[in-house]
Design brief:
Layout: E1 3-14, E2 17-28, E3 32-36, H1 43-50, E4 58-63, E5 66-67, H2 71-74, E6 77-80, H3 92-102, H4 107-120, H5 136-148, E7 154-158, H6 166-181, E8 185-190, H7 193-196, E9 201-206, E10 209-214, H8 216-223, H9 228-235
Parallel strand pairs: 3-8, 3-9, 6-7, 7-8
Antiparallel strand pairs: 1-2, 1-4, 4-5, 9-10
Helix pairs in contact: 3-4, 4-5, 8-9
Bound molecules: adenosine-5'-triphosphate (ATP).
Adenosine-5'-triphosphate (ATP) binds next to helix 1.
């Protein structure tokens, strides 16, 4: 496995609030890497910097040895934000066609990409339905399909399963495993422990610091505890 993302000395403040404080981290090609932390820990801010949406005050992010932000890198990144950016009055297909045109996909590629993405998230039976009539889970899955259209090497998902019932959550994680098997590198933020367990490696983020980074099993073993929640508290110096 080779390193896909290298983060060195990353820091960012909003006004006087230091949100990210000296982050160092590496993400390997082909892994599902999780960012685990409570609300406000800095997960979204960090993935926005990695995705080239925000710029850091200090430090750097390299993706395949190329410095972020970079226009050419954008073509190889799929980004699914925390809230769905969909046109409510358009159908699922029309939303994806619009996104595919932004990615610059030609007519033939576009048709194939849309079909494959819809199959991946199991929405083929709903292509012509207007998005405002979709359930919350269907909207999340359509957003996921949208982030896959250009077949990115790196998929960044900011809390992809928030507000989604357990069955759909399972199905999204199954999709992520399939994408990983196809060679995609996946970076996912979560504050849900059972999702964190499903990641190959995890960085635990607290108050803008990475307090630990390893395989879920190893994180528990290091702290001699049986759950990630207890490991998180132990790494943070809390009594559990
Ligand atoms: N544009 C902004 N302007 C000012 N402060 C911000 C901005 N974006 C984020 N913050 C602050 O930065 C901190 C980290 O926010 P961030 O959204 O990265 O956390 P998070 O770990 O993703 O939380 P959540 O799980 O709730 O999404 C918070 O204190 C938040 O209020």
């Amino acid at each position: 496995m080779s390193t896909m993302i290298k983060i060195q000395g990353l820091a960012l403040s909003f006004s006087n609030e230091k949100v990210l404080k000296d982050i160092d981290m590496q993400i390997e090609e082909g892994e599902i890497f999780g960012l685990l932390g409570p609300s406000g820990a800095g997960k979204t801010t960090l993935v926005k910097i990695i995705g080239g949406i925000l710029e850091a005050d200090k430090g750097e992010v390299l993706i395949n040895q190329q410095k972020v932000p970079s226009l050419s890198l954008m073509k190889s990144i799929g980004y699914m934000a925390q809230s769905d950016a969909l046109y409510q009055e358009l159908s699922a297909k029309e939303n994806l066609e619009f996104l595919a045109s932004i990615y610059g996909l030609g007519k033939k590629d576009r048709k194939k990409a849309i079909l494959e993405a819809l199959q991946m998230v199991d929405l083929t039976d709903h292509v012509n339905k207007i998005v405002q009539n979709f359930s919350g889970g269907m909207k999340r899955r359509l957003s996921l399909a949208g982030s896959l259209l250009h077949n990115p090497d790196l998929l960044i998902l900011d809390e992809p399963t928030v507000g989604i019932d357990p069955m759909l959550r399972q199905s999204i994680w199954k999709d992520l495993q399939t994408l990983k098997e196809q060679g995609m590198t996946i970076l996912v933020t979560t504050h849900v422990m059972d999702e964190a367990e499903k990641c190959d490696r995890l960085a635990m983020l607290r108050d803008g610091y990475v307090i630990a980074c390893d395989r879920p099993e190893q994180l528990k073993k290091n702290q001699e505890v049986d759950t990630l929640e207890k490991a998180f508290l132990a790494y943070g110096g809390d009594e559990s």
